[in-house]
Amino acid sequence: MYRQIFAAFLLMIALLENASSESRRPGVKVTLEAEITVTNDTNSPLNGYVHRIAAPVGDHMQQKLLGIRHDDVSEFERKSFKHEAGDYVELEWDIPANSKSTRKVYFDLLVKSYEISDGQMSGQTMSPGRDFQREEPDSIYLQPAEYIESDNDQILKLAHHIQRTYSDPEAQLRAAFLTPQQMIQYRRQSTRGALYAVSARQGDCTEYAALFVALARAMGFPARMTSEFLFTEHHTFSQPNHHAAEVYFNGHWVPVDANLALDPKFGYGFGSGAHSKIVLNRNSVWVWSNLWPRGTSKRPGSVDVGMQWKIYDMRRD
């Protein structure tokens, strides 16, 4: 089984290198709109309602966050998640009694295709430089976590086999990238994680990303999952609809998408990508959260909040 997994190594790399030129088009400007709707079916106003939304990461090599716009609110602040997982914005406003209130936040981005060359992968400066060269990442990205069971015997066995087969670190990571593609039969499902993927041999994009991250961590490479909006025929979402990964190698966070690499027309793979998705955050942090004013739960009536995301205003750069 292991020989079959790694025998496809050179073939898969060749397919990725020959991916359609369509995936190497110039960048596009897009706006990610986050719409918050709060329904207050009580006889009292909600004064000082606070809503938090994850902002698209601004230091990924596929995208640049050009600016943030928002509807009128009483307070607006940008803050950071722990462990360099990204930023979020915090809005505060008052919601009248027996009413529905909507606020929107607009994230303007430039999304571009990218491909790391052999020289860049070996440690030379990666354009545009400072956005992708970092200090050593947080140790959390080497540790096992929920859905990333890098200390499990089955995961460790696979990782050790890769290390015995390939002495070069980049080759080890590329083999870890190919492993989910060879082991997992794609099937949409609820989140199960890396160990389930190895045991059941099935999963969706989450399991592809989780298994790569678990293997990378088991081999001593810091790695993390990313939450993303993949926009092809769909541009409206209730939540992120895709997961991929990043691995820290030679001073850079390298994007890795083992799932989309199954179909070269997407243009995504190991250190390469097109411009058909937006990376929202990392490390499985929350997408949105909120704080109700004190005493809200004790009021007669109901209160509710909903989120809708939309990508629009696409213009060729």
Concise synopsis of the structure shown:
With about 325 residues, the protein is α+β, with helices and mostly antiparallel strands. Helix content is about 20%, strand content about 35%.
Please specify the SSE layout and strand pairing:
Blueprint (H helix, E strand, L loop, with lengths): L1 H6 L1 H9 L10 E14 L4 E10 L7 E8 L4 E6 L6 E9 L3 E13 L2 E2 L2 H4 L31 H13 L3 H15 L1 E2 L7 H7 L1 E2 L1 H14 L4 E8 L5 E2 L4 E8 L2 E5 L15 E2 L3 E6 L5 E4 L10 E15 L1
Parallel strand pairs: 8-9
Antiparallel strand pairs: 1-6, 1-17, 2-5, 2-16, 3-6, 4-5, 7-14, 10-12, 10-15, 11-17, 12-13
Mind explaining what this structure looks like?
This protein has about 325 residues and is an alpha+beta fold. It is about 20% helix and about 35% strand. It has helices at about 1-5, 10-15, 120, 155-165, 170-185, 195-200, 205-220; strands at about 30-40, 45-55, 65-70, 75-80, 85-95, 100-110, 115, 185, 200-205, 225-230, 235, 240-250, 250-255, 270-275, 275-280, 290, 300-315. The chain has a five-stranded antiparallel β-sheet with strand order 3-6-1-17-11, with no helix packed on it. It has a four-stranded antiparallel β-sheet with strand order 4-5-2-16, with no helix packed on it. A four-stranded antiparallel β-sheet has the order 13-12-10-15, covered by helices on one side. The chain starts with a helix and ends with a strand.
Tell me, briefly, the overall form.
elongated
Instruction: List low-confidence stretches.
Output: 5-24, 124-133
Q: What's the rounded overall pLDDT mean?
A: 88
Order of helices and strands: HHEEEEEEEHHHEHEHEEEEEEEE
Distance between the termini: 46 Å
Biggest sheet: strand arrangement: 3-6-1-17-11
Radius of gyration: 21 Å
Number of strands: 17
- Biggest β-sheet: count, sense, barrel? 5 strands, antiparallel
Number of contiguous helices: 7
Strand content: 35-45%
Q: Give the structural class.
A: alpha+beta
Helical fraction equals 10-25%
